[in-house]
Design a protein that fits this description.
Length: 465
């Protein structure tokens, strides 16, 4: 029986990152993976969807080329097969990259399904091969999967989940996206650009319900501009299939006839059938593994990170948790800090946020204020033809300390990190405003939002008395 310092179950953003960090510390590491290296994020989530988003962006730029004085002769159209092939190649390249990294750190990778036999031992099965492995500590990083919702019977043909969307062989003539979270919003813009008639429905009262209200309202406005038909505060009561497509009926009585449905709500933890009960690892009512601030489970030698441990289902949060978990598993002492975790929706325009939303500050009873600055006032935004959106800051009134930041607009996914660092460093809006930003850049909107909080923004007209 092989013995390791640390055995990790799963090789996604928590698993492979945790493995490399453990090897950097000096541990002998083994990773067990039943599918492809990289987990859901690399193979069926973050990376493939962002690759298709780029195809949609290039298509949109080609269609708008004449506005920039560029003539493109011939028809501008999508070759879905090529876009999908490029997506697959990007994924393949990155999977090879992870494999190379793990080999460089001399991390053992075993293919198969792992199951705990006790707190000190697991069984790995691959076909007829069965192997017992022991370790000083374990990290469970098995991720999550799309939830199965009875009212939306996913069949892989007319009713699809997120995994099946990445295997489309033709652009749907029409599609209803159920759930307007990050995934739903991203696919709405992808498919609209690809040529689908897109409907998106959200049970909660705003698009992107996890985001600040301002961002949700502005994204809804942009959806309407693109002729994406969005319904909020609506519930699907039933769906009926026929030979011509699917009929979805809402609680308000509206009927939507489409060719496909994409179910973009809910994920469940991959915590079943891995023997957690044999190791004394506790889960909550939904199956997520219970962990403390050190990412330690109810079993002393077993840690968990990523989607299977609950909380925000974000790849970068999973990686951060894994680093903390591994440090503690190997005798160090660290605690997870969730106060600064950026989130991004790669819609068009992009949404990004970090820290408290306005509703959070209000619920906490904080004496706060907000300031904002619109991208349309920037020379850079006008030059590149992307003027929709704004930067919104939430800050404490008395101290002017930054509490949260929310961006909708071009490159929001990159711009948010300046504000994440500001939040981490307990910066004030004055600190942001007095940091010189290069001109002409989109990041000037961050500086001017800080100045706006002080009543000193240069590119906001003087208020009328």
């Amino acid at each position: 029986m092989e013995i390791y310092d640390l055995v990790i179950i799963g090789s996604g953003p928590a698993g492979y990152v945790g493995g490399i960090r453990a090897a950097q510390i000096g541990a002998k590491v083994c990773i067990i993976e039943k599918d492809d290296l990289g987990g859901v994020c690399l193979n069926r989530g973050c990376i493939p969807t962002k690759t298709l988003i780029k195809s949609a962006e290039v298509l949109a730029q080609a269609r708008d080329a004449e506005e920039f004085g560029v003539r493109i002769s011939g028809d501008i159209s999508l070759d879905l097969a090529k876009a999908m092939a490029r997506k697959d190649q990007v994924v393949k390249t990155l999977v090879k990259g992870i494999d190379s990294l793990l080999k460089s750190w001399k991390i053992t990778v075993k293919k198969g399904e792992a199951k705990f036999l006790s707190q000190e031992k697991i069984l790995v099965e691959s076909g007829r091969v069965r192997e017992e492995i022991s370790a000083g500590a374990f990290l469970v990083a098995t991720g999550s999967s799309p939830a199965q919702i009875p009212v939306f019977p996913v069949d892989g043909k007319k009713i699809l989940n997120s995994d099946q969307m990445l295997k489309l062989t033709e652009v749907p003539e029409s599609i209803l996206i159920i759930g307007a979270g990050a995934m739903g919003c991203e696919w709405a813009f992808i498919l609209k650009e690809f040529g689908s008639e897109v409907f998106i429905i959200e049970l909660l009262p705003q698009i992107a319900p996890a985001e600040d209200e301002t961002l949700g309202a502005l994204l809804l406005r942009e959806m309407k501009k693109r002729k994406i038909q969005a319904l909020v505060g609506e519930k699907i009561l039933e769906v009926k299939e026929d030979s011509d497509g699917i009929l979805a009926r809402t609680e308000s009585g509206e009927e939507l006839k489409v060719k496909k449905i994409f179910v973009s709500i809910g994920r469940v933890p991959n915590s079943q059938n891995i023997g957690l009960e044999n190791a004394g690892v506790e889960t909550d009512g939904r199956g997520f593994i219970k962990v403390d601030s050190r990412m330690q489970t109810s079993a002393r030698k077993i840690f968990s990170a990523g989607d299977v441990a609950g909380g925000l289902l974000l790849a970068h949060k999973a990686s951060a948790e894994a680093k903390v978990a591994v440090a503690n598993a190997l005798g160090q002492r660290e605690e997870m800090d969730y106060s600064v975790v950026p989130s991004v929706i790669f819609s068009s325009p992009q949404l990004a946020s970090v820290g408290l939303k306005e509703r959070d500050a209000k619920a906490k009873g904080i004496n706060y204020a907000v300031s904002s600055f619109q991208f349309r006032a920037l020379g850079k935004a006008q030059a590149i033809g992307e003027i929709a959106g704004e930067v919104k800051l939430v800050f404490e009134k008395e101290s002017q300390r930054l509490l949260g930041a929310h961006i909708i607009g071009p490159d929001a996914s990159a711009l948010i990190h300046e504000l994440a660092l500001a939040l981490k460093m307990n910066a004030t809006i004055k600190d942001i405003a007095h940091t010189i930003h290069a001109h002409p850049t989109l990041s000037e909107a961050v500086m001017e939002a800080g100045e706006a909080g002080m009543g000193m923004a240069i590119h906001i007209p003087k208020p009328r008395l």
